[in-house]
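> run fold Bifunctional oligoribonuclease/PAP phosphatase NrnA
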Amino acid sequence: MSHAQQLHQLLGEGSKINIVCHNNPDPDCLASALALGRIAAAAGIDEQQILYSGDISHQQNRAFVNLLDIDLRPFEPTVVQNRQPDSLLAFVDHSTPGENNTVPPETNVDIVIDHHPAEEIDARFVDHREELGAAATILTEYVRALDVDLDADLATALLFAIRSDTLDFLRGATNEEYDAAGYLHEYADQEMIRQLSTPSVSGGTLDAISTAIDNRRINGAVLVSHVGRTTERDALPQAVDYLVRLEGVQTAIVFGLVNDAIHLSARSPDARVNVGNILNEAFDDVGSGGGHHDVAGGEIPLGIFADYTSDDAQLLDMIEQIITARLFAELNLSEEAAE
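> ok
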């Protein structure tokens, strides 16, 4: 059986499905969850929930949820604690309980659909394709294969997700992405695509990007910077997307303090550098990090740092020294050479 047929068969065993997004879900995760919900409904599951932890803080993600009227609910531990045998649990655009989600690590998962690098994925149904540029590409394949009704909202969500996760087909796009986009284009709302592509930017995001520009340190073709403390978590990927375009820079990493954790975002068009591995190796002992060879992120709990000082300036200075030293060491760069 094909993956689509296997999924349909498993869905036939359930009466309810909880679809868990990763923390701070992006359009690829949200569109994939929306599509899986539609597929589940077509398979006879009347009750579907899309759940998430964290925040919808990126202006594009907020616009995506609002314009497409996606019903999102906070993930609560009772979802897995009180599960009935016919209640299915699914992950989209991520794969492991306790990693980039608040699902207890020992939880049994029924369905995993993902394209991010991962090892030892444990679920009853797994479709894990690292070679693809977006999870939405996989869900589009299922929608087509199972002849699920494709209205304008679902087509728009999936098409925008593919475009977003591949930077308009400039990053990681495969023939499958182009094929899926060609299929979706006929049904999608092009005016909504334009609205989603140009959301307004908050003042906090602009301030964070400005701070990252001011704090940049360049060592060879590597740029490391920080945004200080911010409430705009999604300003980090926007800042790093901007800074990696600086002439002579091939790898950019930006970090910042968000609530009680240090968040990192990395980009590298340099085929010789795998930023997913860099962040994982540099911070695996104190937090989590990983992703693709050219796009990655990480999170480190403040822990003892927060107990050391309540002065943000001192805290940032200490964190900047430690984070930068670990990154330069992992990249085999001398700190003395940094500008």
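The chain has a mean pLDDT of 91.
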